[in-house]
Amino acid sequence: MAGLDVRLARILIAALGGVLAALVGAGVWIAVQARDEQGREGDKEAALLAAGAHARNLISLDYRTVEADLQRILDTSTGAARAEYAATADKLKSTTVGSKVVQQGVLRAAGLVSLTGAKAKVLVVADVEIRWDGSANAPQARYHRWSMDLDKVGGAWLVSKAVQVL
């Protein structure tokens, strides 16, 4: 009988060990899933904020601060978008200063279309009032809608493409 009791005890201990291992494995899996979901939520929020900031940078230009304004546009972009902004910066600066342009933009909305790994697509809605210092012309309101592609570069979301949509 003693041998049977020892065998039953060993079987019981092995079974309990298996159950414990399964519980630990499930706990680790749940923790990893929760961490991944938190990371995705953080990326969603960061991509939306980055697209909104870039849109505000595009529509908030002032001839008195145009150098810093243009630098903010470059700082929130990457790839082809950044190259395009850099290529047209001198002309934009010249026009802005020469016409004494003051644009004040307001972000109205930003919505995530997709997020896959280090790439996101965001739709952005923003409005701007444009005036010209020293001009008798009335300010003009403009309404912008963009589809923006963003890439996560070095932990930061940057706009790689901004296309106006109707």
TrEMBL record:
Ranges that cross the membrane: 12-32
Superkingdom of this protein's organism: Bacteria
Cellular-component GO terms for this entry: membrane
Keyword vocabulary terms for this entry: Membrane, Transmembrane, Transmembrane helix
Cell location: Membrane
PANTHER family: OUTER MEMBRANE PROTEIN RV1973
Name recorded for this polypeptide: Mce-associated membrane protein
